[in-house]
Amino acid sequence: MTSRAQSSNIGLVLLLALTITSAGVVVAIGGTALTDVQQEASNDRATHAMTLFDARAAVVGLGEGSVQTVRLGRSNDGQYTAESESGWLRIRHTNYTGTSTEEVYNASLGSVSYRSGDTTIAYQGGGVWRHRNGGTTMVSPPEFHYRGTTLTLPVLRIRSDDAASGGTTATIRRTEETVRVFPNETAATDTGEGAPYDVDNPDGSTRQYRNPVRNGTVSVTVHSQFYQGWADYFRTRTTGNVSVDDDNRTATVVLKTTRGVGQFDLPAKGESVSVRGIAAGHAVTDFQIGVKKDSGTFNNLDFSLYIQDGTKSWETMVSVPNGIGNSYCPSESPAVQFPVRIYYYDSSTPEGVHLWENETVNSSTGPVQLGCDGNDMIIEVDLTGAGQTFTYKDGDFNEDTALDWEAYNDSASQAPSPTSFNHTGDDGENTTYRFGDTQNLRILTRHYFALFDSDFELTVSHGPGNRGTTQIDTSASSGTLRYNATSGGSYITYLHVTENNVSVALD
After folding, report:
1. For residues 126 and 319, what is the distance between their CA atoms, to the nearest angstrom?
2. Residue 73 pairs with which residues in a beta bridge?
């Protein structure tokens, strides 16, 4: 009896101990879960409050009101903080004159944030971000608007420092009028069409920023605790080159300018004009070249423009006959005839070289002419002119062109005839051509340019052979190339940037 009684007592004690331990574990787990739920609820309230703050800050910062008040609610164990120097935004235009880089804008963004434990919910740059365990998600988008090839960026800056806990109210005030950053036409002088910015003037006046932006690339860089979220947003809004620097906590998006729109100086022999962002299809609307003679001679001159891009090559060559290079001007000289040829080849197809030729171009009529400036000859070429026709031919390709078309043709597995222009649109294609068929210069130029990608280099050449550059006055020679730009998200044509400053008082 004694042994059984002792066993019963021991069992009861063990049962009670197990029950108490289990209850403690349940209370501990339940307490932790309850704390997590409460903290998450607090974070959700702060997220909602920051979204409301975002909307009110936009009203003030973008000029629709001067003062707005937002009840942020209780912070529980967290704290609301306004910081004027947290993060910055920088805009650079690389090669904005072709040789140098312009820093268009560089300033702090500031932020208003709620911090609780390992979670930060913050307003910065016109957006709301949530940062936790080293990662960032976007709650609402920043003020970065990209559409077509236009970037609109009203920079919203927090220009005050404050902090509060418990029940908190934020008062937002505009601190100054909106500052126009780009475009900014405040310079005293103008350097002429094609110059995106004015240089510093001797009288100390400021540079002039103008649209459309040309040359190089435009980059937007954000340094921030929330840089990963900024990078994700850049990727969703553009197809530009987006990169992150984890060590410096920066996100950068790079957009290419559509360089070839408008007038340009004629490059030297072997140098190029960058064509960027040309739309698909028959996008070229205006393409003209004027080549003026220098101290040398235009006798026996072969002047050409060519493209080599991937598997595709194109060249148009104007040949000035021997004997008229120095005697054609003054302008009362009788008209002469000279040849103009157009070549195209794609190594990824079995076809040989396409050759279009007019051997009897009249020097005084049509889109390709010989003009005069005093006693100096000018080669005038309108590659989008329709007044001259060219014949599709089977040539020997022995001309002194910049590209080796004979080698291209030898590497082809079959002759090019017939060839089909498979575009549709303003030029009335779909059309198949055989040797002896004709077409005008405008359609040929627009067709072959449509076969290249959106970016390529248009290069200048002249010969024969290794002829120097002295016969062409590049300073007095120029061109115009206009085309419809692509709407793809890698390009920028128009940039609109303003600075909008607000202060935030937390009570």
Report:
1. 59
2. 168
User: What is the arrangement of strands in the sheet containing 376-382, beginning at the earlier edge strand?
Assistant: 262-265, 478-483, 284-292, 376-382, 368-373
Q: Would the pTM count as exceeding 0.90?
A: no
Cβ–Cβ < 8 Å for 355, 391: no
3-state secondary structure of 441: helix
**C-alpha 320, offset from chain centre:** 40
CA atoms within 13 A on the CB side of 72: 35
Q: Is residue 177 part of a domain?
A: yes
Please report the DSSP string for 169-229 in residue order. Answer: EEEEEE-SPPEEEESB---SS---TT-SBPPPPTT-PPP-B-SSP-SSEEEEEEESTTHHH
Cα(245)–Cα(213) distance, rounded to whole angstroms?
A: 27
Domain range for 322: 262-483
d(CA 188, CA 99): 23
333 part of a folded domain: yes
Length of the chain (residues): 507
CA of residue 449 relative to chain centroid, distance: 21
DSSP state of 442: H
CB of 422 within 8 A of CB of 448? no
185 Cβ contact list (under 8 Å, min separation 6): 208, 209, 210
Q: What distance in Å separates the CA atoms of residue 158 and residue 113, rounded to the nearest whole number?
A: 11
Q: Is 4 a domain residue?
A: no
Task: Assess whether 207 and 58 both reside in one domain.
Answer: yes
DSSP per-residue letters across 78-146: -EEEEESSS-EEEEEEETTTSS--EEEEEEE--EEEEEETTEEEEEETTEEEEEETTEEEEEE--S-EE
- Output the DSSP codes for 224-269: STTHHHHHHHHHHH--SEEEEETTTTEEEEEEEE-TTSEEEEPPPT
Which residues share a beta bridge with 182?
497
Number of domains observed in the structure of the chain: 2
> Does 21 map to a domain?
no
pLDDT, tens digit only, all 507 positions of the chain: 455 555 556 655 555 555 555 445 444 444 445 455 556 667 788 899 999 999 999 999 998 888 999 999 876 778 999 999 999 999 999 887 666 888 999 999 999 999 988 899 999 999 999 999 889 999 999 999 999 889 999 999 999 999 998 889 999 999 989 999 999 876 333 444 334 444 444 444 456 788 888 778 999 999 999 999 999 999 999 999 999 999 999 999 999 887 666 888 899 999 998 888 898 889 999 999 999 988 777 888 899 999 999 999 999 999 988 877 667 786 666 788 999 999 999 999 999 999 999 999 999 889 999 988 877 889 999 999 999 999 999 988 878 899 999 999 999 999 888 998 987 667 777 889 999 999 999 999 999 999 999 999 999 999 876 555 457 888 899 999 999 888 778 889 899 999 999 999 999
